[in-house]
Amino acid sequence: MSFDYDLFVIGGGSGGVRAARVAAGENGAKVALAEEDRYGGTCVIRGCVPKKLMVFASEYAGMVEDAQAYGWDIKPGAFDWDVFRGKLYAELDRLEGIYRNILKNNSVESFDQRAHVVDAHTVELADGTRKTAKHILIATGGRPVVPQFPGSDLAITSNEIFHLDRLPESILIVGGGYIASEFAGIMNGMGVKTTQFYRGAQILRGFDEEARGLICEEMRQNGIDVRLGTNVLEMTKEGDKIRVKATDGTEDQFDVVMYATGRAPNADNLGLEGVGVERGRKGEIIVDDYSQTGVPSIYAIGDVTDRVNLTPVAIREGMAFVETVFKGNPTPVDHDLIPTAIFTQPEFGTVGLSEEEAAAQEPIEVYATSFKPMQTAFAGGTQRVLMKLIVSQANRKVLGCHIVAPGAGEMIQLAGIAVKMGATKEDFDRTVAVHPVMAEELVTLRQPVRTA
Length: 452
Ligand SMILES: Cc1cc2nc3c(=O)[nH]c(=O)nc-3n(C[C@H](O)[C@H](O)[C@H](O)COP(=O)(O)OP(=O)(O)OC[C@H]3O[C@@H](n4cnc5c(N)ncnc54)[C@H](O)[C@@H]3O)c2cc1C
Prior knowledge:
Elements: E1 5-10, H1 14-26, E2 31-34, H2 41-46, H3 48-69, H4 81-105, E3 109-111, E4 115-119, E5 122-125, E6 130-138, E7 142-144, H5 158-161, E8 170-174, H6 178-189, E9 193-198, H7 209-221, E10 225-228, E11 232-238, E12 241-246, E13 251-254, E14 256-259, E15 263-265, H8 272-275, E16 298-300, H9 311-326, E17 340-342, E18 348-352, H10 355-361, E19 364-371, H11 374-378, E20 385-392, E21 398-404, H12 408-420, H13 425-430, E22 450-451
Parallel strand pairs: 1-2, 1-6, 2-3, 6-16, 8-9, 8-14, 9-10
Antiparallel strand pairs: 4-5, 5-6, 7-15, 11-12, 12-13, 17-18, 18-21, 19-20, 19-22, 20-21
Flavin-adenine dinucleotide binds next to helix 1, helix 2, helix 3, strand 4 and helix 9.
């Protein structure tokens, strides 16, 4: 049977573009890709990249005071949202151009429209054109969802936060996950009076408890009104403001309310039910270790499969798909020991098991130190950092490494290599410290603070 293409990719985000490029460029496959919005997807257009640039922008506020303490004669200035947003948009345009060119330069035919699946080998574009392919790869990502309650339509999500006409005077951020907590830090740093509601007992559920506690404490020290055990009951429009009635009995007005309480896979209206592709409880596409759905010619990668929703993971899944399908080398995706960074202020880098997860699994030793880092302590700052290792008592392997500190994301990328290689506590100890840096504490932790 002959097809129009060897591969048709639906979705031009992190995973889809990588898979299309490698299948076409390195393996000579005839590939097409459909993207209904902007190339680069969530990460480039409304996720990692613009968010990180906003983190950078927001961090300068605190630097002025520190610089003064170091003897610099500089005055705090005002943050100009318009100037920043203009530069941000230009940067995103540039990056989108790069993504488009990657596809073009690798001879991937792209269609700027929505696509859905018609049968195991056929895709229909929004204009009604049908294309056939030996393999179909669904890489349609995910989207933020706002729960329904009175006034919920007044809320924005992370999609809109990058497009505000002006910086609000006050914002309420609802949610306790990494997106909510990162944006609380960003807005606060930009000078916006920031409140964060989270209905649970502590933000950043699922991560190491000691690290979560320190991050929350530091966020409060930075001026964010973090209200735990609190949710929104209803919201009403009052002039330019939004009045929010909360479960803790309070009522407050905010200029903007941003919801970051969850995301859903983009798997609706893709024609999946008709062809027999199975979906899970959250609507995610069910795949096996090779990202293959129950329909042998249809694969899915990235956030739409709701495995580990991170850009480098979507990319890895895309590469593994190409290796499996186009190189004849079946490659499962390794989702174990993925290092990751959360760009809260302070930043959090983490890999492996939390203390709680590890203790539930086997006897452990916990090595940890919390201290005031040299740079900010010199300037009179009270911020603390945390360096923590979770060690197996049985085989001395480092099961988890958790760092709350400026630059923790950079540190955890490297510590992640050691943990992934199966380094023991003694391997860490054999490594000579780099002095004077914060991370040297990771190789000089002598006594466990506790066993469990
Ligand atoms: C605010 C925010 C911050 C984040 N920060 C980080 C971070 O710091 N680090 C990190 O690793 N990850 C981060 N992420 C997660 C990361 O962005 C995602 O994991 C990653 O983008 C997933 O890639 P993907 O290829 O699966 O999907 P996406 O990048 O979402 O791409 C899917 C693409 O498919 C398109 N599409 C959808 N349906 C169709 C259709 N029917 N037809 C055609 N096109 C379609 C969409 O328009 C989109 O462009 C963040 C996410 C958000 C929201």
